[in-house]
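Exercise 7. Given the components listed, write out the predicted structure of the assembled complex. Treat all entries as one system.
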Amino acid sequence: MTRKNSGRKLPPFKILSTTAILGYGFPESSFRKGMSLKPDLIAADAGSTDPGPYYLGAGKSFTNRSAVKRDLRLMIKAGVENNIPVVIGTAGGSGARPHVEWCLDIVREIAREENLHFKLGIAYGDVDKETVKKALKEKRIKPLAFVPRLTPEVIEQSENIVAQMGVEPFIKLLGEGCQVVVAGRSYDPAVFAALPISRGYDPGLALHLGKILECAAIAATPGSGSDCALGILEEDSFILEALSPERKFTPQSAAAHTLYEKSDPYELPGPGGVINLRNCSFEDIGRGRVRVRGSQFVPTDRYWVKLEGVRLTGYRSVSVAGVRDPIMISKIDSILKAVEDRARDIMKIKPEDGRIFFHVYGKNGVMGELEPVKKTASHELGIVIETIGRSQEEADALLAVTRSALLHYGYEGRIATAGNLAFPFSPSDLAMGKVFEFSVYHLMQVDDPAFFETRTEEL
Amino acid sequence: MTAKTKTAGKKKRNILQVARVIRSKNSGPFELTLDIMFKERRHFDLFREKKIITARKIARLYRIPESDVLKIIYFEPSQAIKVTIKRKIPSGAPGDTDIYGAQQHVPLFDLEF
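Answer.
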């Protein structure tokens, strides 16, 4: 990965990042502007763990199919027609096999509709359970901060375990002449950094640039996740450039982005090493552009990849209601406790088999236990009643009983005896389906960084 | 909102007078990361020199054990302090209230110095 060029000066390498997450959209004008600057690479990150564990577990994308198709059509058409590689990482939002297949389906559809022919490279991010178990046995697994210890049982219970691939699988596929690459779970910067690293550009600069470009214009000011950004990689620095007139990069906006969603802005760990930004400088070079220098890639002794996996923890049902009665509001905690006890008594269900949560908006619905304000000053409360059962039927039944118990609960001092809740909807109850939780969030040491399954397809 | 900090001698100032950005966000599903960016360099320097933000203070504001405060980092290019704490409940697990962790910053508004 620390391949050095042989003395020959490297020309500027231009990377067009279209959008923060594929499917979030971008103005065509910004894209055209970016294309007019003749980029060497068009890339976008398509995923995140931010929307929670459900999407990885369910094999569904949190992005919308039509929106993803719209973004991809513009990118692939321009890329193929101008012979510029198009690289997509963490396809389908979570980057497991069903997500990648979902995205490939869209790519094939576009190729058919636009009559485009190209070599498609595919890299899967999935890691099978046996591989993880073997690594666990060989002590090649370590947890990240605050993550529970991994056991063979947890691995067995987990679904769609993926690993964040580094630049290596991309370099392999691009080296095989793929015009478009669609990859499963990827380290966000990899889609931007792989091609320039393979051409001899400094990996520290390439990965840091990728880290910024993965959020497209979010690091500009005003920031936007739905606008393009251009990164120009040079031998000893890189330049950030916005592509719409209302935006610019400033040293502050570029630096501040490094803080976002990370626990340490100076050391950004990734597959195979750490991007160290201690000696990094951000310089305003005019016309809304910023030059960044000094980013370093420090390889680790062993190559570690981050694993992600989720397990099914039950089925959820919810009901939304409001409370306006001040007498009830003043006693809400004790009322909810009594209602939960009553529902459990009726259903004869133990807390571990059927869970009941009241999200009380106007009180502590947002912060839960962390809420420092203990007494609500609100004249009305919104309550989301949530139940989680071992099956959808159990969750539905527990919700129905809890909801009706709360609706008619005769609390002390009650003078409104017709009903305690205002329901905005009929039906009042909503079956939400499977509930997942993150079960694997660990590092795994691997010998071959390109161990991910790859294949190519002629379209 | 909370118990008033003692104001013996010099009058205490509130973080909102000197901060440009105060925000929270997930840093992965098991951590919550809190950013405070200062309007002026001198306040960033003051906070760093006087160690105004400590694990103990964060633990008190959030009513969490000190061991749940993972790290406190000073980031010069943004005149920012970053504090990372343990999520009470991992993102999206049963009982979670804020999948993205984007609305957990408000206890920091009570920081006085």
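Discussion: The interface with chain B takes residues 49-54, 144-147, 251-252, 255-256, 258-266, 280, 282, 313-314, 355, 357, 359, 364-370, 372-373, 388, 435-438, 441 of chain A (CB under 8 Å). The mean pLDDT of chain A is 95.
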